[in-house]
Inverse folding.
């Protein structure tokens, strides 16, 4: 396969899938006032309540500025609260609220449905292969970025 051909660009197709996902999730969560820029943060916090903003950035591989903006919007919408970390008074731990717990089923259902939409017509082996390939690509990207910043 010649990757110089426009349709053979891996990045192009990943970008298209990402944009479609953002549109889908935004539409599904519109009634909750959760946008495509906030839902990944809320999803992590619903699984790991009480982590720091820095840990959240690391888990999502998103820069601290973007994380701060997303956290601020979730705080304004009352999905999370920030509390000073008892061990490090300069840092904050982020906790979900009752409002976040109420939206949890809708959020995770939307994420599951999107995965089901993407995998329509796939057999189980193909689904597993796609996940394996994407994990390998993410690992390659992370390794490259790590080496680039040394």
């Amino acid at each position: 396969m010649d990757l110089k051909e426009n349709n053979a660009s891996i990045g192009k197709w990943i970008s298209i899938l990402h944009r479609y996902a953002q549109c889908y999730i935004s539409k599904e969560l519109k009634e909750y006032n959760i946008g495509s820029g906030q839902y990944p943060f809320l999803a992590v916090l619903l699984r790991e309540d009480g982590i720091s903003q820095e840990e959240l950035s690391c888990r999502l591989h998103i820069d601290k500025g973007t994380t701060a903006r997303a956290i601020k919007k979730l705080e304004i919408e009352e999905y999370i609260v920030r509390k000073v970390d008892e061990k490090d008074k300069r840092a904050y731990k982020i906790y979900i609220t009752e409002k976040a717990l109420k939206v949890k089923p809708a959020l995770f259902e939307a994420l599951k449905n999107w995965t089901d939409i993407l995998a329509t017509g796939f057999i189980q082996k193909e689904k597993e292969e796609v996940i394996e390939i994407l994990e390998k690509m993410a690992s390659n990207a992370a390794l490259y970025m790590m080496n680039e910043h040394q």
Notes: The chain has one domain: 6-118. The helical segments are 10-29, 39-47, 53-60, 64-76, 98-118, 124-148. The chain has a mean pLDDT of 92. The longest strand covers residues 80-84.
